């Protein structure tokens, strides 16, 4: 089973405030927040899907290893050196982020965030059929101090990321 950078795979929209800024600068801030996540030494990612079938997944990423907990069981997925950055680069090359707007500021446990709304086209795999569906409108919480993506919300999906030191859940 492949585990691409899931915060980009299922993204989204919440209640929106009056836009503060809109345009290429905001899209660049969003892209940079994803790039920053691929460069950190580790993080925990919690994904909650509400439809079509409710499910929860948890991932712990340390260096070039992903630990995935799906249906209550942990699996270790070793990656080749540079694979995290390579997966993200592929996603950013094959999907388009547009209609970027800064909608509000909020505070999460990790600190002050800028919340952006954006639209992303489906990811186009290098081989095989295109992923189903059309563009998805999403919201992303980007840390003011660290520039990292801390939360992504889309219809039926919420992804939360925690960048404190992570310990592998299994050997």
At a glance:
By secondary structure, the chain is an alpha+beta fold. Helices cover 19% and strands 42% of the residues.
Structure report:
By secondary structure, this protein is of the alpha+beta class. The protein has a single domain, classed as outer membrane lipoprotein receptor (LolB), chain A (Clam), CATH 2.50.20. 19% of the residues lie in helices and 42% in strands. It has 3 helices and 10 strands. The protein has a 10-stranded antiparallel beta sheet with strand order 1-6-7-8-9-10-2-3-4-5. A hairpin with a 5-residue loop joins strand 2 and strand 3. The chain starts with 5 loop residues before the first helix and ends in a 9-residue tail after the last strand. The model is unreliable at 1-22 (pLDDT under 50).
Helix content: 10-25%
| DSSP summary: helix tally | 3
Number of strands: 10
Spell the H/E element sequence: HEHEEEEHEEEEE
| Strand residues, percent | 35-45%
Blueprint (SSEs and pairs):
Layout: H1 6-9, E1 21-22, H2 24-39, E2 42-49, E3 55-62, E4 65-70, E5 73-78, H3 83-94, E6 97-108, E7 111-120, E8 136-143, E9 149-154, E10 157-162
Antiparallel strand pairs: 1-6, 2-3, 2-10, 3-4, 4-5, 6-7, 7-8, 8-9, 9-10
Helix pairs in contact: 2-3
Descriptive tags:
single chain; 171 residues; alpha+beta; outer membrane lipoprotein receptor (LolB), chain A; ten-stranded antiparallel sheet; 3 helices; 10 strands; globular; disordered N terminus
């Amino acid at each position: 089973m492949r585990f691409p950078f899931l915060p980009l795979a299922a993204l989204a929209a919440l209640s929106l405030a009056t836009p503060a800024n809109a345009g290429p600068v905001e899209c660049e801030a969003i892209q940079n927040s994803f790039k920053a996540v691929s460069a950190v030494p580790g993080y925990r990612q919690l994904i909650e899907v509400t439809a079509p079938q409710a499910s929860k997944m948890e991932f712990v990423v340390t260096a070039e290893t992903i630990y995935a907990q799906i249906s209550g069981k942990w699996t270790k997925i070793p990656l080749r050196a540079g694979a995290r950055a390579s997966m993200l680069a592929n996603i950013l090359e094959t999907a388009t982020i547009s209609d970027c707007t800064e909608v509000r500021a909020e505070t999460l446990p990790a600190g002050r965030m800028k919340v952006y709304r954006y639209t992303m086209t489906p990811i186009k795999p290098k081989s095989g059929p295109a992923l189903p569906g059309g563009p998805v409108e999403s919201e992303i919480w980007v840390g003011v101090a660290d520039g990292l993506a801390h939360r992504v919300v889309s219809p039926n999906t919420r992804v939360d990321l925690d960048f404190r030191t992570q310990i592998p859940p299994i050997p």
